[in-house]
Amino acid sequence: MKQEPVAADAEGDLFRADFDYSVVRGVETVGGCVGAKQGGP
User: Fold this and answer.
1) Residue 41 located in a structural domain
2) Which domain of life is it from (predicted)?
3) Do 4 and 10 form a contact (C-beta atoms < 8 A)?
């Protein structure tokens, strides 16, 4: 198990968090469009 610099690890966590947030926002946007077309909530 290799040791990684703390800065690189923190940057990786930040990237993953930002990526996850983007995916969630994208899903919410698509879900909202589909729901509106179907007349759902």
Assistant:
1) no
2) Bacteria
3) no
Residue with tokens 């800065």: 7
In 13-28, which positions are buried (b, 16+ CB within 10 angstroms) versus exposed (e)? eeeeeeeeeeeeeeee
User: Does the predicted TM-score (pTM) go above 0.70?
Assistant: no
Identify the sign of the CA torsion 24, 30, 31, 33. positive
Q: Is the Cα dihedral 32, 30, 14, 4 positive or negative? A: positive
pLDDT digits (tens, 9 = 90+) for 4-41: 667 678 788 888 888 888 888 888 777 776 666 666 55
> Is residue 36 assigned to a domain?
no
CA distance 22 to 30: 12
